[in-house]
Amino acid sequence: MSYNALIRPLKNGNEYNSLFPTPKEKKVRLGKGDTHTSIELIIKWALENNHEVKLVATKLQKGSLSETCFAIHDFLYNHFQYEADGEAQLLRSPAYAWKHRYEGIDCKSYSVIASCILLQLGVAHYIRKIKQPAYMPESFTHVYVIVPVNQDSGSLKNGYYTIDGTLKSTREPSYIDKKDFFMDKLEHFGLKGLRSTPESPDNPYNESDPSWLENIAGELSFDGVKDYFNTPISCWGGSAFSGDRANAEQEKIGLYFENVLTKINEAVRAQNMALLSSSFNQFEGILFTALKAYAAKQSEGWNKCTADSIIRMQKTLEFYQKIVHVGLVAWLQKYFEMSIISTKVYRNNVDFERIDPAFFFTYTDPNVTYTSNVQSFKLKSGVSQIPAFEFTPYVEQASANPSSFNAETFLQGLSTVLVSFAGGGTGGTGAIDENGQNIYDQNNQTKTTSNAGSFLLGALAFGGLAIWGFSKLEDKGSKTAKKPVK
């Protein structure tokens, strides 16, 4: 197929004009990154701009998943012209793309729009980037969206639908390698990024550079379990640590660990082993240092009000020690080979109280210390997908009696697919779903995915248009297209 074959006559689409908002002329810096960043920006752009297709999504929703996927593909192919990007890489929001649809968009923007629509409809899906056998096979050169037939688990084993707006056909392009990035249903996604703690060597995230993985944070909230640790606190007279202060600090501790656990999920999803190592060490180091610190503080002798507040902090931290930490270690050991490579010493000095600040009243002189093992992580052979680490109903149930917590029972309850390594191959099997529609592709064989790709140099967003320069991810619409989509 030639590049010209990807150009298509467009429908006028007048019925959609009133359904898109006017793009805002606003400029923001999106940041810098590596080979994964182009896909992360596609995901980030979809999460931040899916509200623009709320009305369009309703119009495209049909009676079945397959019909909805076909309708989305038809909308993309027949209403947005294809145009390969030049050296300046472009990423358009749906409203911006609609306003400039006759000028053309590339596979990345098609994927953004498709993902936005699916998010609004509550349909789980994946952003897939591929290496193609007939064009620059050493690099990832194309990206599109796939929708699993099994919406409950997100597994691709039962087949999936392909939405690739560059192609008239709904059949998946041939590929020799791929990498999938899971997009859960909208209710699990926050639109403004990870609620981050102040920037520090252990926590490189800050509000000016939010994570795109806030969806996991909602499933790690402490709110559902905190009441199990709320012992009555009665204060007479003054107190160094009042009941009201204890309530506030308990919330901060929950949010702090929610953020760290979200980083761990993010690291697993991105296969960033360095971030996984540092985040897991941070979780263990801060948790066990805080436990030792409050134990030391309690021994100093305080009035009943302050002593009760310290006990509440201890019970809160014991939830993370006896349930969350046990479950986290079991989850990591199930999917990764772990090896101790060094140690790191934590201490409850004055700065320790200022983390977030989440650990009020932990300082003692002399300091207590905790030596945490720094672990390396390597994905185990044969792992096809990893579920997100989240607080299941079983976690809340076990919170009333932490000694009853069983790690294996917990692992069996994890069902939200975080990242999938299954797939690979050259197309579908011609399967038919319950509505008589063709399932685009299924039963692909597992392939090993490498980390080839682009180097993001810098990005700006102008009124719904993200522009950046990067060297590789030369996405294109088909395996033989002559003009790559930069």
Automatic annotation (TrEMBL):
Membrane-spanning segments: 452-470
Keyword Transmembrane helix among record annotations: yes
Protein name: Transglutaminase-like superfamily protein
Domain of life: Bacteria
Keyword list, A-Z: Membrane, Transmembrane, Transmembrane helix
Source species: Flavobacterium cucumis
